[in-house]
Amino acid sequence: MTSYAQDEPKVQSLHKVYFLNPSYEFEAALSPTATFTGNPGLSFTFGARYSSASGTETLFSIYPSINTGFRHYYNLVKRQNNGKSIRGNSGNFLTAILFFYGGELASSGVDTPDVTILPALAWGLQRTYNKNFNLSLMLGMGYYSARSGDRTWQGETPVAQVKIGYVFLKR
After folding, report:
1. What is the spatial distance between Cα 65 and Cα 130, in angstroms, rounded to a whole number?
2. Alpha-carbon span 167 to 117, nearest angstrom
């Protein structure tokens, strides 16, 4: 009797550049389903605030950021068995991630902290398409601690991230 078992799927080590929030990301394979990520770049915040005195104001800030984390890809076997691609770590994942944000580089006058630390737990998905186009989405919850001079803010916060970019894959 002959067996034609498929190889077990494995994550890859990847280098990526993202355009929506300009950044570089390295994703290092630690096991067949786990990776470590490092992502230095720029982050943007947008929002609006209303006051009866000044009306509605549009707010934005741009600041340096870095995040590191561990991802566990939990559906690679299912994707492979259904004939879907796992190329470029295309799969769904659970992650523990730590965000570091520095002081603002540019702002609309928003009172932004000098430093923010945000550990979070999240669910995400990543897809690598033709021509190495990469899409990564992440949703979760975290707890932030921010400081500006002698002032401190802390609390729970939702975490959402959309990244669109390019992944460098070995041929």
Report:
1. 29
2. 27
